[in-house]
Amino acid sequence: MASKILISRAQVHVPVTCTLCDSIEAVNWFCNDCQEVMCDKCKDVHQRGKKTRNDDVVPIQEADKQGKVLLPEVCKTHPGKTLELFCKECLVVMCSMCFTQKHNQHTVGHIEEEMESQKRYAQEQLETLNSKLYYFSDHRSKRHEASKTFRESLDVVRKDVQAQGLMLKAEIDSIVTSILVELSSLAAEEDESCKQDCQPDEKHVKDITQLIGDIEQKAEQMSSTELFELTGRLRNTVPLYDVTGKSVHVPQRTPSLVTGQLDTKQLKEMIGYVSARHGCQYMNLQN
Q1: Whose CA is closest to 254, among 283, 225, 281?
Q2: Using CA atoms, how far apart are residues 76 and 70, in angstroms rounded to an integer?
Q3: What number of other Cβ atoms are within 10 A of residue 71's Cβ?
């Protein structure tokens, strides 16, 4: 069986090959039941057959009433010959004459079988991409969650600092201001750190989502050439997102206020200092 491409109504007049006899003469008919293009002679035979006499055979110009029509793809090098073979060494589709002239010493498969193989490969890569998408999305989510907790802790510390400041207002105004500035600096530092940590994940999530969309939305409608181009992209790009053996590493810092004794001679110790403890959460990804 020949490979297929999608052709719109405006293109139906382009010469095509009869699916049954490979003729390019008087190819005027299309069977909606068999999805086959036929010449005048094969159409007559088709309508006399016991199993096909009641098939819906229409002029080829009317074959796309419900949308697109599947027509055989013709070899550009050998007009009239359909592309029905695939060279596994050169990675090209070809007709029987191409095989005889240039590829007869190569490993060759039937294009329909190869297309099914490529579709299976694309589906396998879809599963791999989904697992990688989960890894990067989870890392991004946990990092934002840690940043939110960090900032909430900063708010608690800020209130503690202000409470201490009310107790020793006259003596500690300058120290309170200094610590508040330090907290703001930590917040800005955390924002920048979070932004830098999540930047690679944002790109990976965007790229992988695009690949998944191409597979899910376009793979079934692609021509053989487009499909092999897509699977070629997958072979080159999927290894770039390898997360085998990696764990999600999210820095955890919990700022707190370490208070001191209320002593007018030791104002700085009375207000205390900010401690931002470090910690990490890990997630193992099973590939």
Answers
A1: 281
A2: 18
A3: 25
